[in-house]
Predict the 3D structure of the following.
Amino acid sequence: MPASPVLRVLAGIGGVIVLLIAGLTSFGMAIIAPLAIGIAAYKKRRRGEQLSLLGSWLVGAGVTAMVTTIALGLAFTFVPELNWDRLQQQALEAPRDTSEFERMMHEMTPPSSPQADSVSKRILESPTFWRSWGVFTVAFTGILWGLLFGTIAWGGTALVSYAFTGKAPGRAPVGESGY
């Protein structure tokens, strides 16, 4: 049974709206997913194969995650270095209010050894630790945002693909599947 023209038009409109929202909220990163899916589908068709539904998601979300992570890394590379001494001084001078919860937690936990405290202090004062933590944070955030927006863009791409072809992505047209 051929796809309903009304359903195809609605799918196309919905897909374009989803892609626009994903593109705007991800600062344009989500637009990479439909391009990557299109390129992967083209290459598969040239070999006489079809890009599967899972394959299209892996391509769309994976490429978006990679590009988002690289873009975030480059963005943070150009941020001027913070004045760590000033930041640390402000943190030390900040007024401290020991709440009831903090007092209760100190009573419940045994005191740590002076050796452990000195190791922790050296780690927290190490610029290498903070740079490494920053790299990890940027990578994790880029991958998470990329997968999120890549998945949303993949859904929008699937709707637009359905609007143009009349078949769900990753599925053979109705006479070719053998069903």
In short: The CA atoms of residues 58 and 155 lie 12 Å apart. The mean pLDDT is 82.
